[in-house]
Automatic annotation (TrEMBL):
<feature type="domain" description="WYL">
    <location>
        <begin position="143"/>
        <end position="212"/>
    </location>
</feature>
<dbReference type="Pfam" id="PF13280">
    <property type="entry name" value="WYL"/>
</dbReference>
<feature type="domain" description="WCX">
    <location>
        <begin position="241"/>
        <end position="318"/>
    </location>
</feature>
<dbReference type="InterPro" id="IPR026881">
    <property type="entry name" value="WYL_dom"/>
</dbReference>
<protein>
    <submittedName>
        <fullName>WYL domain-containing protein</fullName>
    </submittedName>
</protein>
<dbReference type="InterPro" id="IPR051534">
    <property type="entry name" value="CBASS_pafABC_assoc_protein"/>
</dbReference>
<dbReference type="Pfam" id="PF25583">
    <property type="entry name" value="WCX"/>
</dbReference>
<dbReference type="InterPro" id="IPR057727">
    <property type="entry name" value="WCX_dom"/>
</dbReference>
Length: 342
């Protein structure tokens, strides 16, 4: 707060000097509602740190610039503002992907070099005070993102060789790029796919070859990235949203109620401390993986097909462990039958 207020006072002092008001400490202290000592400290900052050619005119009783062409530095920010920018860059570097590490660090260094004499900041010292963990993201070439950004901006078609991980297959596609978004460090492209004749999501890290074509396309004016993403859960989006209902036991409910998992979510508190979470999303595969991560502390109540898929996955997992290590001998008959029934 103090640094920001000092900056505002310095700007006011400079304004009055350029207006030939010949301000002095007494008058400025009264106008800015601070002590004369504070104004003298601001004057010292102007002279010592900003190298202002400040002088006192005895006849007019105030300050003026001996060199009227002198100007305040074009960039004047506080320590707190530079720290905030540094942290935003550190976050961006990790969540936008390492392909941007070099240009991001270059931007910070240029700003730091331009602030010598105004705000002294040791970037390496800042890094000893703050640490931001990088998510496990798929590597993506910076050139891919830059070319896709241009294609989105200029409405240009792109030819891509895309690796579909679920099928283990590669296929050439012509796409019309609409939107890029980042999820936990991974970059995704929302585009109209000429092969599927519909909007699809492509992981940019699986684009093996690409060419921005000279062919323009007419963007659908009804497309809204916000509405599109509202139907997705994580990176998956199906065609028709369905209501997903999940019950979390009292222990896990403590953590579930802390976060916003989806824009459509609704929660219902139960008497025993458990919680029911309702979402409207399209595509259930990502939801299935997410809910299974909570093990026995989460139960899918709806839709029936998601509950069935989770149950089948659990049975498949049990078979895997039965084959490798057999069931523990202390399981009761009922427990064994519930694991082995089809």
């Amino acid at each position: 707060m103090g640094s920001r207020q000092q900056l505002e006072r310095i700007l006011e002092i400079d304004r009055q000097i350029r207006a030939k008001n010949y301000p002095n400490a007494t008058r400025l202290a009264r106008e800015l509602e601070v002590s004369e000592r504070t104004i003298y400290q601001d004057r010292q900052f102007l002279v010592d740190r900003l190298k202002a050619p400040l002088a006192y005119d005895r006849r007019r009783g105030g300050w003026y610039y001996k060199d009227p062409t002198w100007a305040l530095p074009s960039i004047m920010i506080t320590d707190g503002e530079l720290l905030a920018f540094f942290l935003s860059v550190e976050v961006a570097q990790r969540y936008l992907g390492t392909a941007f590490e070099a240009p991001l660090r270059s931007a910070v260094e240029k700003i730091r070099m331009g602030l010598q004499g105004q705000v002294q900041v040791n970037l390496e010292e800042l890094r000893t005070c703050y640490s931001i963990a990088a998510p496990p993201a798929v590597m993506v070439k910076r050139e891919v993102l830059l070319d896709l950004h241009r294609a989105v901006r200029e409405c240009l078609r792109v030819k891509i060789l895309y690796y579909t991980a679920s099928r283990g297959a590669r296929q050439e596609r012509i796409v019309e790029p609409y939107h890029l978004y980042n999820l936990r460090g991974d970059w995704y492209l929302v585009a109209f796919d000429h092969f599927r004749k519909e909007m699809r999501v492509f992981h940019t890290g699986r684009i093996e070859k690409w060419e921005v074509l000279r062919e323009h396309f007419a963007r659908n004016p009804g497309f809204s990235a916000e509405e599109w993403m509202a139907q997705a859960f994580s990176a998956e989006r199906g065609n028709a949203p369905v209501e997903v209902v999940i019950r979390f036991d009292p222990h896990q409910a403590r953590y579930i109620r802390e976060r916003c998992w989806h824009p459509t979510q609704e929660t219902e508190e139960l008497g025993d401390g458990s919680l029911i979470l309702r979402l409207r999303v399209g595509g259930l595969e990502e939801i299935k993986r997410w809910v299974m991560g909570y093990g026995s502390r989460a139960e899918v109540l709806a839709p029936p097909e998601l509950r069935r898929e989770v149950a089948e996955e659990i049975r498949d997992m049990l078979r895997l462990y039965q084959i490798k290590s057999h069931l523990p001998p202390n399981l009761s008959g009922n427990e064994k039958s519930c694991f082995t029934q089809k």
